[in-house]
Specification:
Layout lengths: L13 H8 L3 H13 L2 H8 L3 H15 L4 E4 L2 E4 L1 H28 L5 E7 H6 L1 H11 L4 E7 L1 H9 L5 E4 L8 E15 L14 H6 L3 E3 L4 H10 L7 E3 L2 H9 L5 E4 L4 H5 L4 E3 L7 E9 L7 H9 L3
Parallel strand pairs: 3-4, 3-5, 7-8
Antiparallel strand pairs: 1-2, 5-11, 6-9, 6-10, 6-11
Helix pairs in contact: 2-3, 2-5, 3-4, 5-11, 7-13
């Protein structure tokens, strides 16, 4: 006899349905590794699984989501436009899972130490994970909450007392905050090998870069602020995207040139999916800063994290 759903029973709830629609963490980590390494085989090795298993997992994820995520060819694996967007979302889910893991560990240890951090995208993606791993060794019971956004987002979170420590990429320390330089970075002009700039014999003039529509981060990002100041103004963007990953994927696809942190494009430059375009007579170096509210010098876990980031 088929049993109906009575007053005390219920069918699958929203959480159950969501679990069937969203890929598991292992699949999301694989997609992020493919985006970083440009190769399904290298991504599989990094995650300690076989290439057939990785291929099967990608196909299962594509069936689950109903979209193609990865274009495979003898030269490697490249994210589709949909794949780049899904990878950006996946990164946030994985970061949230890592923060969950740290928090759960703190609960298991019966400790109440907490650190709230906000970081601009480049720092959050390419520097902060290493710093947090080091902090975990120093303070294994610290529960870390991480928020990522542009430099203006970080300043707003600090001024609202929603985080204890921030990291920004802009030209100056935002009003109402104190800070210190913790690292140096360089912006680089990049384009796909098929772009006409990749075939130039000489460096690009700053004036040509300034008047060319570029793929850029949104207003409020430190990268865009530094570039705008260095060139004395920018043309209307070709595309305006909200994450470094999305900007990079668009540039790799051949949509147009972009300017990104050297930290963010190392893998793409090494694999020739992007080409560095020299620019003459313009300084694109920048300082990366830790920041906090005026009069609230970092203490406890925030002070320990700051000490781990400082230049030697």
């Amino acid at each position: 006899m088929v049993r109906g759903t009575g007053p005390g029973e219920s069918g699958p709830g929203p959480v159950d349905r969501l679990a069937h629609r969203v890929p598991d963490l292992g699949a999301l980590q694989l997609l992020i590794a493919i985006a970083k390494l440009g190769s399904l085989g290298r991504a599989a090795r990094e995650l300690g699984i076989t290439q057939p298993a990785a291929s099967s997992r990608v196909r299962a994820m594509e069936r689950q989501l109903g979209v193609a995520l990865v274009d495979r060819s003898p030269r490697g694996s490249r994210l589709t436009d949909a794949g780049a967007l899904v990878t950006d979302w996946a990164r946030r889910i994985v970061e949230a899972a890592e923060a969950f893991d740290v928090g759960a560990q703190a609960l298991r240890d019966g400790r109440d130490k907490r650190l709230r951090v906000a970081a601009s995208m480049t720092i959050a993606e390419y520097l902060l994970p290493g710093w947090l791993i080091a902090l975990r060794h120093e303070r294994p019971g610290t529960a870390v909450q991480l928020l990522a956004g542009n430099s203006q987002f970080v300043a707003d979170r600090l001024l609202a007392d929603e985080v204890d420590l921030g990291f920004v990429e802009g030209l100056t320390i935002p009003s109402g905050l104190d800070g210190v330089v913790v690292a140096r970075d360089r912006l680089v002009v990049v384009a796909a090998p098929s772009h006409r700039w990749a075939r130039r014999r000489g460096p690009l003039e700053p004036s040509e870069l300034a008047r060319t529509p570029l793929i850029l981060r949104e207003q409020g990002s430190g990268t865009r602020q530094v570039l705008d100041a260095a060139l004395g103004g920018l043309a209307e963007p070709l595309l305006e995207l909200a994450s470094t990953t999305a900007v990079k994927a668009a540039a790799v696809s051949g949509a147009g040139p972009s300017v990104l942190s050297e930290l963010a494009v190392g893998e793409e430059l090494a694999s020739r999916r992007l080409v560095r375009i020299p620019v003459e007579g313009v300084a694109l170096d920048r300082a990366l800063r830790a920041v906090w509210r005026v009069g609230h010098r970092p203490a406890g876990p925030a002070r320990d994290l700051l000490s781990l980031t400082r230049l030697g």
